[in-house]
Amino acid sequence: MSQPRREWRLRGSDTSWAIAFLLPYASVFVAFVIYPAAFGLWMGSDPKLYRTLFSDPLYLTTAFNTLLFAAVGVNLQIFGAFLLSGFFMQRGRFRRALLVVYLLPCALPALSAFVSIHYMTVSEMGFADSLWRAITGEDGPLFLVSRWLATSVNIAAYIWKWMPFWTLVFMAARWAIPAEVYEAAAIDGASRMDCFVFVTFPLLANVYLVCTLLAAIWAIGDFSTVYFVSYGAPARETDILATFGFHRAFDFGYPNQGSAAMMSALPFLIPAVILLMRRIRLTGVQL
Fold first, then answer.
1. pLDDT tens figures, 229-250
2. How far is CA 283 from CA 138, 206, 208, 212, 277, in A?
3. What is the pTM (predicted TM-score) of this model?
4. Within a domain: residue 137?
5. CATH number of the domain where residue 52 is located
6. Is 269 left (phi over 0), alpha (psi -120 to 50) or beta?
């Protein structure tokens, strides 16, 4: 006969010790997580702030820049990381050495990585214009004077910095695929392209979607790329919501508008977070 299951409960002094043990952690959580988030939401809760923002042409430009930055930057870097993960999975000393160099941007601090790109593109004496002049014999474009060129530089810098990270994620996911799956596909006569299309991608589809959603959430709130690379040049036309809110809060002294600018991204962030959590839960159940 199985013995009756005993219920374990805190009694007497045990409850007091448990509360005393958890109280410091709960206090830190309230002070550094709940309070800052609640205070930021309260600062941007006035509807008048959004009427002011939506009537500002610069804010509309900034909102468009944020969507463009996230859509192009995230999709290009995730797709590129997915392809490069297959390249670096192949054996060879050259690929291993190249992988070490490839991972360096991800390991560099954002300040040193992005400031170097800023000085490469900021003037006609920068590396980019000098290289253009050496190849074509003509003066190169001033990258940070044109809005679209500066936006392209911001997106390229963002991809260059963070694509190695997602490459490592996809490499780890590829290593988790059993070798027997590819052996069975090879026995059936599948080529490398067939394995990629019908084996690798279907098995990593959930990982690809989760990485895309997570990267999109990070990209919408990204600050360092635009701030250090273009600094919103020319004339704040390449600002995104994070840098726009920063300038409104600290340069112009309107912290409520700065908070409201970032809160205006919630209609995009909340569905992305909900979908991300659902995909993670479903993936966990399947595993």
1. 999 989 899 999 999 999 999 9
2. 54, 7, 12, 15, 10
3. 0.86
4. yes
5. 1.10.3720.10
6. alpha
